[in-house]
Amino acid sequence: MKLMNSSASLEERREDFPALGRRRNGMPPVYLDNACTTLVPRQVMESLQECYANYPACGGRRSRHWFAEEVSDRIEGNPDKGIKGSRRILAEFIHAGSENEIVFTLNTTHALNLVALGFPFRSGDVVLLTDKEHNSNLVPWLRLQKAGLIRVDYTVPDDRDLFDLEAFEGKLKNGRVRLVSMGHTSNVTGYTLPAREIIRIAHQYGALVLLDSAQAVPHQVIDVQDLDVDFLAFSLHKMCGPRGVGVLYGKKDLLGRYLQEEEGGGFVLEPVFLGGGTVADATYSSYRLLDPPECFEAGIQNYPALIAAGAAVKYVQQIGMERISAHEGRLNRFLTGELMNRYGDTGWFRIFGPQDAEQRGGILTFEVKRPNAVRIAEELSRKRNVMIRDGVFCVHSYFNERFGQGWTLPRSHDEHRMVYRVSCYFYNTVEECRIFLETLEEIFRERSYL
Questions:
Q1: What positions does the domain Aminotransferase class V occupy (predicted)?
Q2: CA 331 to chain centre
Q3: Does the N terminus or the C terminus of the chain have fewer Cβ atoms within 10 A?
Q4: Res 7: pLDDT
Q5: Do residues 181 and 175 make contact, with C-beta atoms less than 8 angstroms apart?
Q6: CATH topology of domain 50-316
Q7: Which pLDDT value is given to residue 382?
Q8: Is 394 a catalytic residue?
């Protein structure tokens, strides 16, 4: 496996990504869709290939042979061999107290649903969200509300689109909020919540906190113990890792040992899926589950991807999370300044979220409200291989509330509007941002917007 030079420049890091070496129409890709998914470096690909080539077997407790030991060593670790497994690598990455607090999932959505379906709600409980939740942190709660199991409530931002701690505390004062579940960093605006203060206030009123950190963990230092967060979910595919691997962090006492129904349950998260890999023993009439995290990881896992997840974490750690965050901030400041200088006074161009780029990380989402405002993302790709995202970014509720349902299908040509998102990562450059800006300007002029 190729070793990384920890002192390499970010420009040199680009050589690790085969996709950046591709050409179409003689031009390289300009990949600015990182909030959706990031590119994958050779080091992670080599980790996947090594597993499939050298030890393509089951891990866990299933088999006791050579190949199975190789798999288990790389996931669970083997101190005698000097191997630190992926589970511990991930635990240390988010500063968890124990690797047993790390549950492997398919992705962030899967992790959030494990909490929604396994949380011991009581009649009258409220789950409190923000107004900009991804569907993955909205629809599971709406389903429970529809079934009459909980009530969903929302807290709204202040007039600067920043989190309103006073309004948030007001929602908690009636004592019915059992769980606060919020997107740590918005995939629409890039704004990061004041999570520590939110968690402190929620705990004062007896509520637990789940953070959807899909857009936070890949971009900044996260310390779950310092935050005192109860549950936290994220995906590896948003941080140079393999697809199909996510993580649910849960405090040890909230995961706990699974309590059988005859024991009266308890205030612990219950496993949702049961079967192979979760069972310590079973008879025709009863069963006993393994301790966490195993009781949450049902069935054959994607072992190569779990191993590669550790390689992805090592990769971004060697770059440095502070360095990644600072670089994204520089790119966003540059883009924001250029876009506002060019279009800020047009009346049809608007940036979502806080207007200070420092508060939006690597995400810049903007609205174009002009006739024929659609398909700009396709033209960017066609003209210069510039890749950004358009649409609602799986946050239908926010845009429907803001623009009215059916806004993407306006009654007349003059009512067209579309929302576009540029999202950067450490391998993006100022030159790529310039290419995006120049191509966008060209499109605007061709459409007679300017």
A1: 30-433
A2: 20
A3: C
A4: 53
A5: no
A6: Aspartate Aminotransferase; domain 2 (3.40.640)
A7: 98
A8: yes
